[in-house]
Fold this protein.
Amino acid sequence: MNVTLKLPDELVREARHLAIDENTSLSMLVSELLDERIKKKKSLPPKAPNLADSLLLPEEPEWFGQKGFPLPTRDDVPLRATPFHFEGDSEK
């Protein structure tokens, strides 16, 4: 198929030199580059439609939604030995 493209002169000049260096035609060079780009795009996973969907695991393991994770409670976390004060705070 013949296609007419409007490209900057300098880009075409450089592309012709690249095609000559690779012992191919400009048409074949452009065809290979487009083919690589299309294959790369097809091999990428589809983008998530929104943030909420992107945070979901594609296949959640059975335990994922279950409760009972051994998370520490307030009683398990020791308190500071000394109180913490921000700069500028004055003790009353």
User: Anything to note?
Assistant: Residues 7-45 form one domain. The mean pLDDT is 81.
